[in-house]
Structures are given as C-alpha cells and as structure tokens.
Amino acid sequence: MLDNEGRLDVVFGHLHEGVLVEDETRHVKFANKAFTDIFIPGLDPALLVGGDCDATAVDTAPMFKDGQKWLDATRAVVASKRPMSNDVWETVDGRWLQRDYRPRVNDDVVFEHIWLYRDVTLEHASRTVAGLDASNGERTGFRNWSDAIERLGKRAKSIGALEKGAMACVKVRQLDVLNAEFGYEVSDSILIALLEELRGEFGQVNVERLKGTVFGVLTTDANAHELMSRIHQLLDPTRAIGDQFVYLNTVIGVATTENIQDFTDGQEMFECARQAVREAGHRHADVVLEAEMRIQSRLQNELVTRLDEALGAGEFQLYYQPIVRLVDGEVLGHEALLRWHHPERGLLTAGDFIIAAEEVGVISRIDRWVIHEACREVSQVLQDRDCFVAINLSPMSSDGGDELLEVLRNSMAAFNVGPTQISIEITETAIARDQLEFVRLITQIRAMGVNVSIDDFGVGASTLATLKDIPFDRLKLDRSFTAAIDEPRVQEIIRVAQVIGEILGGQVIAEGVETQAQSDLLQECGVHIGQGWHLGMPAPL
What are the residues facing 290 on neighbouring strands? Predict the structure, then answer.
C-alpha cells in the first residue's frame, strides 16, 4: 500500500497543473514537477518538502508584477479557510499564472492546504488574436448544425448520379483535453485552421464544420480510400501552440455512391458517413461504410422515427436499480434507468436508442418525460423515507437546460417531492463537452436543494483543476475500475478517487459491483457505497 506521499504523487503527480500541498503549520508536504517547472525549473520537487511555505511566499512575491498584492491575497485566502478559484497574476517575466486554493478542514481547523497553479499565458494571449470569435459563423464555419447538414445533403444529392462521389465525416479527437489544457479559444483556433485547409483543398461549398469537432467533406472525383488519403496528407497532425506542440488524433468515416447506390437523398448519405465515423471512433481507425453498418444505421433511424409515437403510446418505462451501503446492504437510493417496450423488437435498454435520439434532437423530450415520471413514481413509493432516486441527464441537456430546470421544478411541486428525494446524474464526459454551461446548470440544480452526481467518473477528460470548479455531491466511479479491482494498481486508483471525493466534498459510489469479493475490496479501498447486479437488479416499480 502506498504511503501518504505516494498517494499524493498518484493523485497529483501526473497533472499538468502545478500542485503544492501544505500541512496544518504551512510546511510543504508535497509538490509535483509541474509546480517546480513553473517556479523553479530544474529543481527536484522532493527538495521542497518540509520547507516553510509562509517564508517561501515572501521570497516568491518579487516574481509577480504586483508582489505585495499577491502576498496579501495569499495570506487573506489562507485566513478565510474558504476555497478560492481562478485568481490570475502576472509575473515580471510576462507570464500569467492562474491559481486555485482548497483547504481541507476538520472542526474549523485547516489540516491541509492545497494550491494549484497553471500557466495561462497562451490563453491570455489568445484573447487578443484579431478576428478570433467563436460566435462568428463565417469565421469558424460553425453556424448551425441542421443548416450545415441540409447544405451538405443538397450537395450530396446533386452528385448521386455520378459514378464517383464520396462523403467523409472527419472527427478530431481529444479536443476536450486541449480545451482543459489551453482553453476553448486556442483549441477553436486550431479547428478554424483545419476548416480553412479542408476548404482550400475541396472547395468552400463542399466542406462544413459540424457539431464542434466534426467536419463534413464532399468530393466528386475520388473513391473512399483516395479521399481518406488526401485528407490525412492535408491535415498535419502536429500543431504548434506557442512553443509547445500537440498531436491531433483524427479519424475518418466515409460513405460513397458505390456503396450506397440506392440512396434516396443527401440526408441518407450524410447519415451513412456519420455512422462510419462513429464506428471509426470505436475502432480507433478509419472506416468505409459497410453493408452491416448501413443496416444498423437504418434500424436506428427507424427507432428514432417512432420515438414520438412511443412516448405518447406509453411504451417507455422506468426501471430502478438500488444504490446501497456496502457494509450492511441498506438501500440509500435508486437509479432510474430508461427502458423501451418496442412492439416489434421487444425490451430495449437506453443504449439501444439514446445516441440516435441525441443526434436527431428528440432527447430533450425523453429527458422531460423521465423527470416527470420519476417524480410521479417517487411520490407513490418514497413518501417520507430517507431515500433518493437518481435521474440521468443526457450530455445534450445543457442545450435546453433552463427548460429542464423548469420541468424539474414543476414536477417536484406537482407531486410534492422534496429536493432530497431527487438526485441528478451528469456524466463527466458531458461536462467536459460544455463545462461553463453545465456548471451553470448544476449550480442552479443544487440551489433548488437537489443533489448532483458526476457519473462514469474516471473515464472522462476532467483534470483536477477542472473538476474542482464543478459543484457536486457524489462521484460515481466508472464500472471499469470495479471490474479490474483485483489489480493492486487499480485498488490504489480507487483509494485516490475516494480521497479526491473527500477533498472536493462529495461521496464516492462504485458502479458495476457484481460479486461479494468486489464489495469487500471496495470497502478496503475506502469506498462504502455501491451499485450493481450483486447488490440489486434493475426492476420496474
């Protein structure tokens, strides 16, 4: 088992943010390499351990442009014993450093001070780049999702009679990581450059930027493999950001007139290309549309066309899976899981249709139905019991967040459901998709007294620096960690997740508990709440 310093290294050692951890007397317990790279390049972080942080702060102040103000602010925030985030300071050498502070408090006594520093010089400089405005559609190419599809669809239909015609969806991956590292404006500038390069090669009217990191490309003079080759040759994956270089991982999905000679409209051709790029994302390699993939795409489209009808026909139902205390099996809450009793295909889980529902824009109706139905059923069963029901929100929910808040508020009032009886779950990946909007949404939900859980924690794109800005009450550890809990390294990661949850003020819940052995090991790792088939199967009310 790792000692305290070893655990701190597992938690903070890999972060790009500079981390300094002080004990209750403000002496250094831990520093990572990113911290010394910012303040004392080349110094072994271990040499800082035991040093007097207050005295060091006095020595450090001259490196800031307004050193006395920085020092006064440092002492004031320590005295306040309250978390502080995102104050930014200019150094005398022209850098801009963003700082965050989080105390760990017990009985009003701070027993650990955690500081995070991040060099945001590039982000600060990017704000002054002439012409960079993500809201300017002509500049970014990101005007309107449905309009862009329609434009490409019309172009695709016009080439349908040609012997050679291909549509590619080009997806740039790991942009969430770039957003966290460099900020949205810098990563958006990269996407703008990619758009211009593609349009320069294939023509202005044949390239659209779709939904953030996906580009649509049409050509009439290349087959699938020629098109993929031209795109990869054009888009240099190595991009310079200041004096740093990043590598862009790009995957391509292609549909051709050769493969879909019977397509009826441009929308279908586009859907086929999008199906191919989804598969490319799963395979981590380029994909040309295959017959089986097209069948699956049509099945999804058929499902989507019946969603509205199904909602009105009462084909949807909520199943509930218990969330329990591992030591004694006491049920603390339930997660509401959506099921569809399809008249031809039988019982479908959410994974069979939710992605398609998100992509065609009907997911908000499903979210509204789930919120209303969960509140109705909670009022029938829980009443005054100290128990909650967790409701999942789609990654697309921030697009209609205010409307969902109103549905939640009205449903709770209509069925006399108290705020402690409802919990909202949002995936870590969804938050990374639009952090600012989701933080606003989460803040408003919690202001209603409703708890918020971050779902699938550990497999998304959050760093500790972004996670600390997200108000939450529970972290749901992704089931992949529980499945591999026999591995000692995974056990240490789970212990670290428990520490992170404690530091940031939330409980940790393990998903995917399927055996008693897993339950026992989770408790040894400090996790005392779980969910999974061993603890209870999903079932109707």
Answer: none
